[in-house]
Amino acid sequence: KDWTCFPAKKAYLKRCQHLLKEGARKFSGPFNLTTDNGTMLIFSPEYIDAINEQESLGFPEYAIRNLNLKG
């Protein structure tokens, strides 16, 4: 088994739109997807208002934690 997740990351980079659509079709709720930035929890658009209400889930906080950007 490849513990680096490299094959999954490579598949994501080649087919990200397809994988997102497939995940949304296959699962009725949130699902995990291994991306080039690691494993992400993907939510459907119906959750956008609830997510936006949580300050800790905003993009600036995500970027600081996960994209090596400084606050």
Describe this structure in words.
- It is built from three helices and two strands.
- The protein is of the alpha+beta class and about 70 residues long.
- It has a two-stranded antiparallel sheet.
- Strand 1 (about 30-35) and strand 2 form a beta hairpin.
Quantity of strands, as a count: 2
- Main sheet, how many strands, which sense, barrel? 2 strands, antiparallel
Shape: flat
- End-to-end separation in angstroms reads 37 Å
- Cross-sheet strand order for the largest sheet: 1-2
Residue fraction in strands:
5-15%
* Residue windows where pLDDT falls under 50 for at least 5 positions: none
Q: How many domains in all?
A: 1
H/I helix tally: 3
Concise overview:
With 71 residues, the protein is an alpha+beta fold.
Q: What's the helix and strand layout?
A:
Blueprint: H1 6-26, E1 31-35, E2 38-42, H2 48-52, H3 59-66
Antiparallel strand pairs: 1-2
